[in-house]
Amino acid sequence: MILAALFGIGDAILYVPSLTAIAAKQDAWISALIGWGEGFLLTYLYVSLSMRYPNKSIFQYSEDILGKWLGKAVAVLFISYFFIDASLMLMEIGDFVTTQIMQETPIEIILVLFMVIIVMGVRSGAEAFSRVSELLFPYFLLLFTILIAFISPQIKIENVKPVLAHGIAPVFGGNFRYLGYLLESVILIVMFPLVKRPARAAKAYILGNLLANFFLTIITAVAILVLGADFTVLLAYPSYTLAQKISIGNFFERIEVLMAVIWFITLFVKITICYYATNLGIAYTLGLRDYRHLTLPLGMIMIVVALATMPNRPYFDSFVSDIWMPYSLTYGLFLPILLLIVGDLKKRYEKRSEQGTM
Amino acid sequence: MILMISLLIALFEVPYLRRNAMNKEMLVFFILLVVGTGLSIAESLEANIPNPLDWITFVYKPFSDFILGTVE
């Protein structure tokens, strides 16, 4: 559950406030609120898909359902999605560190350092990094609470007024961009067969997703309340600016790097899972016995892909706000539904043909 | 520098793979390593590496315009 929650928060905590505010302006918090329902429905879809094929990963049952070659094609598509997502997030952390904290350090150094940690995490296995995420969660909770508590004196209710000034349509515009992040939780489907008790895992999956939504809604609402809608849109990292604005009695201030630990924790968990899923997927699809040997060379490729994907900041922003959501929709919604329906039809067909012969 | 890193990676993994006679794994490992090394050298020489996001943008642009057009 904690893994799912930290995963869901992931890089979204840095970007969601400004992304939803692009379209929804001061109503961005409503966009995030709608996300609760969507998140629940989506995780329900993923859970029902994985519960049908317990102890099998998505790469295996896509072959069972769609046949060998079509199934492999779907698996390759999924792997490419995981890989792109992982390298994008790697780039996000590099960009965040070089633009906000250490401006003189070349970005490659930060990418390589972070990649080494991720490779270490992936090589030690799924159980190890699930436990690590459980260890890190209290720190995340503590830091998040400090952030919200100390910024709350600066909340101005006028910033959210007028509510629904432009009707409901822009709210959905913001919500669609938010949905792009929710759909990424499809990656957790890979972790599902590794859990011993599927019923409990299903509950944890859904609860974790709701928890992630809870944190994201709070951060979006607070960003709008403190910074105002127009300012939130302009900022690259609104939640970081939020932390910079903390000032209690002109004494307790400049604690933003401490707050940056929040995103290091969540991003580490998310990238590790994405990268793990990529490696596992490649190993399954090619019929390898162990995924661990792929981690190091693939890490080299990932660093270069990460550098290539973000030539400049505006390019990346327009990609995330316009293209990412439809792209995720293919993997987060259409493919799982396709697998579910085709799998269902196949089962029914097999049952009928069995009855026919009897 | 990059070659040294790839050499280190190879030295790190190859003995284990050979001991367990994982030939298929070895092949995949070396393909990935060569691609990774090649890309890294290309990057360090500031060659133009194709951006995968451009392809994705090309495929999804009409779809995105349609969806966002419904709400804006």
Provide an overview of this structure.
The complex is a heterodimer of chains A (358) and B (72). Chain A has one domain: Up-down Bundle (Amino acid/polyamine transporter I), CATH 1.20.1740.10. The longest helix of chain A has 45 residues, at 313-357. Chain A has helices at 2-9, 12-24, 28-52, 58-66, 68-101, 107-123, 126-151, 169-182, 198-227, 229-234, 238-244, 256-285, 295-309, 313-357, and strands at 247-248, 252-253. Chain A has 358 residues and is mainly alpha-helical. Chain B has 72 residues and is an all-alpha fold. Chain B has one domain (2-71). Chain B has 3 helices and no strands. The mean pLDDT of chain B is 71. The chains are: A mainly alpha (358), B mainly alpha (72).
* Number of discrete domains of chain B: 1
CA distance, first residue to last residue of chain B: 50 Å
CATH topology of chain A: Amino acid/polyamine transporter I
Regarding quaternary structure, what we see is heterodimer
Helix proportion range of chain A: over 70%
Q: How many strand segments of chain A? A: 2
Provide the succession of SSEs of chain B. HHH
Tell me which CATH architecture of chain A applies here. Up-down Bundle
Largest sheet of chain A, in brief, is: 2 strands, antiparallel
Tell me, what's the shape of chain A?
globular
Task: Spell the H/E element sequence of chain A.
Answer: HHHHHHHHHHHEEHHH
Q: Which ranges of chain B are low-confidence, i.e. pLDDT below 50, for 5 or more consecutive residues?
A: none
Secondary structure class of chain B reads mainly alpha
By DSSP, the count of extended strands of chain B is 0
**Highest-level CATH class of chain A:** Mainly Alpha
Q: Using CB atoms under 8 Å apart, which protein chain pair has the greatest interface?
A: A-B, 35 and 36 residues
C-alpha Rg of chain B (nearest Å): 20 Å
